[in-house]
Predict the 3D structure of the following.
Amino acid sequence: MTLSMSQPAVADLVESFSGADPDRLGEEYLRLAGLLLDGGTATELASPAVPLLVELLRTAPADRKAHPAVLLGLLAGAEDPAGDGELATAVGREVDLYLDLWIGSANGQPLSLALAYLLSHFPEHRDRILAVAGDRGLDVYDLSKLDRALARLDLDDPVIGRVFPSPAVWALMDEAERDFDNSWIKAMPTEQIILNWDKDTSTVRGNLGAAAHWAALNGAPTPVEVGTVPPRDELPPPPDGGTELFAPHAAALRCPRCASGLDLTAAEVRCPACAAVYPVANGILNLTEDAERNAGDFLYKLAEVPSMGHFYEAYARPNFLRLAGSNWGTAISPADEDAYITEHVRPVDGPVLDLACGAGRWTQTLTEAVGADRVIALDMYPPMLTATRRRLPELPAVMAGARRLPFGDATLGAVMCWNALQAFPDDAPEAIKEIGRCLRPGGTFTFLTFHSSADPVYRHLTACHYFPGHQSGMELFELDDIKAWLAAAGLTIRHEHGPGTFVLITAERPA
């Protein structure tokens, strides 16, 4: 391959990294990565770089081996411009070296994480790799990620959508939940199963790579603090609750079809203007536009996978903050989140909305800050609403989307949206516009989300993560876009905070 004379020779780039002073090592590593990769695609420098990176991995001091291991993993998984797979083949020729180095590395340290990510790209060596992983006593969660990354799809018994934060966590599902899971997987056409399998593989490899890349630059990640999921037979039953729960907030609620006020005096919620009927069950009011047509489906969804919300809070959420927030060093802790909510949510008169409330952990912090009598929980997903109602049975919960909030103009005293905007990136501008419409003058909008990393390697690895049901990889925001959406909604930023790739903002609708 002939290299452009305007580009530095790849050997010089590798030498610049290997000889860099410690305080410039990260900078040279990122410079080298930027010249070998353009997003997820290898550049013309990638192929001649492979033997040089392998040699560097073989001979470099211990504190400089993680970097070339990550780069080799990125190249092994990169889209090959030639389309012939020669790049991955070249990286894969040295699996014996990678295994020998892995055997001698300490679990949880940068080199071990980097080699696990690199080895995750070679399913043809699955048995050898997993044998070494077992011998070294790899953490059960990390072992299950590697196992899944190296697995081949079995169309007779496909397991889909169960890789984050690790496949080992999903093994905690009971038989009924597993049967429910299999029911929707078996309904998929073969093409969709294959597509989702590939997305899951991308997700698990991206997670391994993000941890390894961060560690190469910053040192070993701190252990993640996860919670526990209570046994299914110890979960309290869904609490009762009808229209009486919503009566204190009736003046704020609106029909999602015609935006008229609602009648909450009967067992069901009705719109006098357009005659729409909205069901209430277990203290959850379905205010989706198709609620009347899908009333039976609503009741079914309330009963599905009863522990899903608890699972999300205990396992998925803390690991997601590490990935999306670059929070591998715990720059933001749950206590920090609690403190931010308590200090910055400042409601005026009117209900306080927890938009996309999830399983209610942060809804509870909100109720402690402003009083449970003021809070309405809203989410699109029945298992999350059920978990929130179990945690906070005194709260009314609304099933609705963020694009068109079922509240009147200037009716809400404050809105919180905690760790959720990134889950519906296409709808975020419209959701923020809706929040501006619904807030009373002086009311605050307090939220936590994430912006894209300035580091192109980390940005690529987070984009490898797929939310269930999403067609493209995770899209994090540009901070300037968020600020533009707030301004367009008539909101003024009052406070901003953001270590890593976190965005914590409180904005206000001016009085």
Q: What stands out?
A: The chain has two domains: 10-218, 308-508. The first strand starts at residue 37 and ends at 38. The chain is about 45% helix and 10% strand.
